[in-house]
Amino acid sequence: MIGWFRIVLGLSVAAVTTPPLLLWQMLAMATGMNEHHAPRLWHRMVLRVLGIRLHVHGSLAKQRPLLVASNHISWTDIMVLGSVADVYFIAKSEMAGWPVIGTIARYRRTVFVERERKRKSGEQADEIAARLAHGHPMVLFAEGTTSDGNFVMPFKSSLFGGASRAISEGSVDRVYVQPVAIAYTRLQGLPMGRQHRPHATWIGDAALAPHILALLREGAVDVEVHFGDPVELTARSRRKDVAAAVETEVSRMMQAALAAPKPGE
Predict the structure, then answer these.
(1) Are strands 174-187 and 221-227 parallel, antiparallel or unpaired?
(2) N or C, where is the chain less crowded by C-beta within 10 Å?
(3) CA 10 to CA 16: how far, in whole Å?
(4) Given this model, what pLDDT does residue 220 score?
């Protein structure tokens, strides 16, 4: 009964608060007001409704242009990063069609990429390059998909193409790439081992609704986000080397978060 009560309460809170926040965002974009306030409140509301407790280490780098390269475990990673930093996301095109989340993502000025259509890749890289040159901090989930939350998969250097394009076109002379690690560490206050971590993960093409309901039913998930020091990407850099260096740092921070003893242990 408690689980169903959490589901009903959570969905009710989301249904009541989402429309006015979306309207606020639409007005902000139309009038030139700060367009980060409403999304940040919405992301925080979703985390609270889901019972996800956030622990932040470090902060978003101040250098611009900035590309944030993060590992990817679940759709909730967007809520995690969006609740603590004024960033824009690079997301797979399928997200644009998701109910509610897709609408909010579009009004959040998310760049949607079609990774299977190479003819589109140049246009998408140009858009990312323009956004970086304009000073927008862009978040890239550099694995290209979601992992099981126990390790970081290889970063795809091709996904850094927008940053390289900004440099090659002369818009900027360098792009700062900041490694960010996300780790889901506890469930119901207890360390989340390999056998329990699937509760927080959302893999590949898994159905979204059951995962949302499971999180609503259980709640009490702890997640850590760690911001590392930026790495410079310049015209003289090898994109693969930068991607590998950032991947190594993200993996190090994630494994440290998963292994670190927590208060009371």
Answers:
(1) antiparallel
(2) N
(3) 10
(4) 85
